C-alpha cells in the first residue's frame, strides 16, 4: 500500500471521499486524479530522458 496506509486507512479515506463528494461525483473525481497522475508521469519522463542521454554521451 502507498505511504504505509493499511486497509482500514484506505476504507476510511474512501468513506470520507464518499461523504464529501457524493456517489455521483466520485467516478469523475477518480478519473480526473488518474488523468492527472498519468500526465505528471509522462511530463517527468520527458524531463528525465534527455538528461540520461546527455550523461551517457558524456561518459563516452
TrEMBL record:
Topology relative to the membrane: Single-pass membrane protein
Function: Part of the twin-arginine translocation (Tat) system that transports large folded proteins containing a characteristic twin-arginine motif in their signal peptide across membranes. TatA could form the protein-conducting channel of the Tat system.
Organism: Cohnella suwonensis
Keywords, sorted A to Z: Cell membrane, Membrane, Protein transport, Translocation, Transmembrane, Transmembrane helix, Transport
InterPro entries on file: TatA/B/E, TatA/E
NCBIfam families: PRK14861.1, tatAE
Family assignment from sequence similarity: Belongs to the TatA/E family.
Name of the protein this chain belongs to: Sec-independent protein translocase protein TatA
Annotated localization: Cell membrane
PANTHER family attached to this UniProt entry: SEC-INDEPENDENT PROTEIN TRANSLOCASE PROTEIN TATA (PTHR42982)
Domain of life: Bacteria
Subunit and partners: Forms a complex with TatC.
Claim: Cell membrane is one of the keywords in the record: yes
DNA-binding found in the keyword field: no
Membrane-spanning ranges: none
Pfam families linked to this entry: TatA_B_E (PF02416)
